[in-house]
């Protein structure tokens, strides 16, 4: 069983040093970032990286993100950093932005990290514990979200310890993640930014650096089995509880509430139960006996959604109906996660 530091934000230097030694030894460490928790290994050690895939039950064609603590680590891994990429790094690093670069060589970053692609996703986390872990390890750390593949990502240790404690050597508990959604993933081509996975850094914020920003069709569309993706979190069933989920959205709140009540009524007639996840101000308007507050603004919803999705299976309901949030700003990232959690079972009115 993993050694467990549960002092949350009071983790001491010695504990980070112990966790870093596990990374050096080729083992796995569960650690906090500002986005979600990661399950990490030495990104330069292919044997260690393969342990991540085994622990998560992750498909080998799903690339990992490499976490660094300084720009020198990036320069050792990638062929070049363009002027546009440097502007993005200057504005958003450390922080929740992953940039897809051309990698130098498989002799430096193994194919297991990149899913045999010639590209590698890199970010510099702002979370203090994550940064110190990388620094003390002395190597970049490959780390996907801490969860069994397909399940909602872990935003606090309590949600994920049961499924992962026997699969890692050290757990650093840094409390709840500040953001709650994985990083924004982008690729820069011909001075155009292409958003491959939306996150906390929004399209609008990226446009403040470079006006030419495109949202990839896979962000809200399905990825076919034989398609190659350069960003994690886009190809397979993801973020989903075992209970069937549905998302309903309309800019007209009354219309959305009426539709959710209509669906709830139909399900109740079959003798089945519904759980509604919606804004607190809307909950009294729903006929379902079970309803949870998802948050009052996009930041709250982003922080709450994965924890709530992990809890719904305990409610023994037949359907979870989730209020949609639209695609503006952070809403694009939330919608991206919700439609995958609902396995594309959604209604837009």
Descriptive account of the structure:
The protein has helices spanning 13-24, 46-56, 71-77, 83-92, 111-114, 128-137, 157-164, 203-206, 253-269, 298-311, 331-341; strands spanning 3-5, 29-31, 38-42, 65-67, 97-102, 119-123, 141-142, 170-172, 184-189, 192-197, 213-215, 245-249, 274-278, 290-293, 319-323, 346-348. The protein is an alpha/beta fold and 349 residues long. It folds into two domains: 3-219, DHBP synthase (Alpha-Beta Complex), CATH 3.90.870; 245-348, Threonylcarbamoyl-AMP synthase, C-terminal domain (Rossmann fold), CATH 3.40.50. The strands form two sheets. An eleven-stranded mixed sheet has the order 1-8-2-3-7-4-6-5-9-10-11, sandwiched between helices. Strands 14-13-15-12-16 form a five-stranded parallel sheet, sandwiched between helices. It is globular and about 60 Å long.
Descriptive tags:
349 residues; alpha/beta; DHBP synthase; Rossmann fold; 2 domains; 16 strands; globular
Could you tell me the CATH topology label of the largest domain: DHBP synthase
- H/E element order: EHEEHEHHEHEHEHEEEHEEHEEHEHE
Stretches with pLDDT under 50, minimum 5 residues: none
Mean pLDDT: 92
Could you tell me the radius of gyration in angstroms? 20 Å
Structural class: alpha/beta
What is the CATH architecture assignment of the largest domain? Alpha-Beta Complex
* Strand residue percentage: 15-25%
Q: Helix coverage percent of residues?
A: 25-40%
The major beta sheet can be summarized as:
11 strands, mixed
Q: Report the span from N to C terminus.
A: 49 Å
Number of domains: 2
Total beta strands = 16
The strands making up the biggest β-sheet line up spatially as 1-8-2-3-7-4-6-5-9-10-11
Query: What's the CATH superfamily of the largest domain, by name?
Result: DHBP synthase
């Amino acid at each position: 069983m993993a050694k467990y530091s549960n002092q949350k934000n009071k983790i001491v230097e010695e504990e980070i040093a112990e966790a870093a030694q596990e990374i050096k030894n080729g083992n796995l460490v569960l650690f906090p970032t500002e986005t979600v928790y990661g399950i990490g290994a030495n990104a330069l050690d292919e044997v260690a990286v393969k342990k991540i895939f085994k622990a998560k039950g992750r498909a080998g064609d799903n690339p990992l993100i490499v976490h660094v603590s300084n720009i020198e680590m990036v320069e050792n891994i990638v062929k070049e950093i363009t002027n546009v990429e440097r502007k993005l790094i200057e504005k958003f690093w450390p922080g929740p932005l992953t940039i897809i670069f051309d990698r130098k060589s498989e002799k430096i970053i193994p194919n297991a990290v990149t899913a045999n692609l010639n590209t590698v996703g890199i970010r510099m986390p702002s979370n203090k514990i994550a940064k110190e872990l990388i620094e003390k390890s002395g190597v970049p750390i490959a780390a996907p979200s801490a969860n069994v593949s397909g399940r909602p990502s872990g935003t606090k240790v309590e949600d994920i310890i049961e499924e992962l404690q026997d699969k890692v050597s050290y757990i650093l508990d840094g409390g709840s993640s500040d953001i709650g959604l994985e990083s924004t993933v982008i690729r820069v081509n011909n001075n155009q930014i292409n958003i491959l996975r939306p996150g906390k850094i929004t399209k609008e914020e990226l446009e403040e650096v470079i006006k030419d920003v495109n949202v990839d069709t896979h962000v809200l569309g399905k990825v076919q089995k034989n398609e190659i993706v350069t960003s994690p979190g886009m190809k397979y069933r993801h973020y989903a509880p075992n209970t069937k989920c549905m998302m309903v959205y309309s800019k007209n709140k009354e219309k959305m509430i009426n539709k959710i009540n209509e669906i709830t009524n139909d399900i109740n007639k079959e003798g089945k139960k519904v759980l509604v996840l919606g804004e607190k101000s809307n909950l009294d308007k729903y006929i379902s006996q079970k309803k949870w507050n998802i948050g009052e603004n996009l930041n709250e919803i982003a922080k709450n959604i994965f924890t709530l999705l992990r809890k719904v299976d305990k409610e023994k309901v037949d359907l979870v109906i989730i209020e949609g949030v639209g695609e503006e700003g952070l809403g694009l990232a939330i919608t991206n996660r919700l439609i995958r959690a609902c396995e594309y079972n959604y209604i837009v009115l």
